[in-house]
Amino acid sequence: MFFSDFMNEYDVTIIGAGSAGLVAATIANQLGAKTALIEKNKIGGECLHTGCIPSKTFLHSANLFQEINNSRNFGLPNCQIGKPDVKKIMEHVKSVIDSIYQHERKEIFEEIISMHTGQRLFVSSSNLKVFLLLMVFL
Q1: Cα separation, 21 vs 134, whole angstroms
Q2: Helix crossing, 86-101 with 52-69: angle to 10°?
Q3: Are 118 and 132 within 8 A, CB to CB?
Q4: Is 39 within 8 Å of 63 (Cβ atoms)?
Q5: In 12-51, where does DSSP find H-type helix?
Q6: Model pLDDT for residues 89-116, shown as the tens digit of each residue
Q7: Domain ranges of the chain
Q8: Nearest to 27 by CA among 46, 14, 39
Q9: Is the pLDDT of residue 28 over 60?
Q10: What mean pLDDT do residues 5-34 have?
Q11: N or C: which end of the chain has fewer CB atoms below 10 A?
């Protein structure tokens, strides 16, 4: 297995590059701490890629659809807009994720924080190893 054993010492090591991890790592770095950030998947975490952002964007489209169909309840002319285009809604969800991800790319944070992609393993109460994720292209 390939791994980084963190022979370099860090003042702060943060596990998870979701919203909280990115903020914590940035603040630690601004306070002068030598900072490492470990993420096993994509930066942005579950919230950005599969949780909060996609679900709320999808729900926003559903709410707009509902409000337009019930426009008469708001004193507006009755509007019937047909069936939602789920493919276009999902394209919109992806565009929202992509627009946020542009500000959370690894390259942006690598300049100030030591970034590690992999699965962490604690080997003692104060040491950990990161098993690196390898990509093989055939």
Answers
A1: 23
A2: 140
A3: yes
A4: no
A5: 19-30, 45-49
A6: 999 999 999 999 888 877 777 777 887 7
A7: 1-44+105-133, 45-103
A8: 14
A9: yes
A10: 84
A11: C
Between CA 10 and CA 29 the distance in angstroms is: 11
Instruction: Identify the bridge partners of residue 37 per DSSP, sorted by sequence position.
Output: 14, 115
pLDDT at 136: 46
- Cα–Cα distances in angstroms (integers) from residue 84 to residues 61, 62, 79, in the given order: 9, 8, 14
Pick the CATH number of 45-103 from 1.10.890, 1.10.287, 3.30.420, 3.30.1490: 1.10.287
Categorize the per-residue pLDDT at 6 as very low, low, confident or very high, splitting at 50, 70 and 90.
Answer: low
Q: Write the CA distances from 54 to 51, 61, 96, 106, integer angstroms.
A: 6, 11, 8, 20
Least confident of 18-22, 41-45, 124-128: 124-128
